[in-house]
Amino acid sequence: MGKHSGKGIAGGRKRRSVFGWVGEILLTILSIFGVVCVAAVIAAWVFGVNIMMFKTGSMAPGIPAGSVALVREIPAAEADIGNVITVQRPGQLPITHRVISNEPDPAGGPEDRIIEMKGDANPQPDPVDYRVSEVQLLFWSQPEWGHTFARLADPKTLAIVTMLAALVVTWAFWPRGREGS
Fold this sequence. Notes:
Strand content: 15-25%
CATH superfamily of the domain at 49-142: Umud Fragment, subunit A
Number of strands: 7
Shape: elongated
CATH class of the domain at 49-142: Mainly Beta
Number of helices: 3
Largest sheet: 7 strands, antiparallel
Helix content: 25-40%
Strand order of the largest sheet: 1-2-7-3-4-5-6
Radius of gyration: 26 Å
CATH architecture of the domain at 49-142: Ribbon
Structural class: alpha+beta
């Protein structure tokens, strides 16, 4: 007989150690997570979707502080009464409240609107009307995910995740000795 083929006895396959199986499962899970992340970034770019976090409770109880939401940009004229939208404010943080009126801006162009908004938890409408041509429409939110996103965005957490990912990739591609060599 010639050289040893390196194949195991059972059906011509090598037997793997438990460590090898755990490594394969871990790499598969990380690969799937990576594909999902890349797909989410591409979808966000193609569809103009952004993630936002709620720091205040002005939209509670439906959207409490600490929630995460997905928004997409639309023309202000398409914001219907009852929609939850985000309005950019020059020199200030954006504000996300419910539309209570949306009228054409007589001093602006055809796409310019005057929008009045109110937070669900607020007793009165916002003290100012917003003159805008584009807004961000909220189409999905999840309570309490904001805390997780904030932790993941922490530089220390990002450094640890990066180091762990580097270790896993290094381990996966580290040259191993061959049997019988």
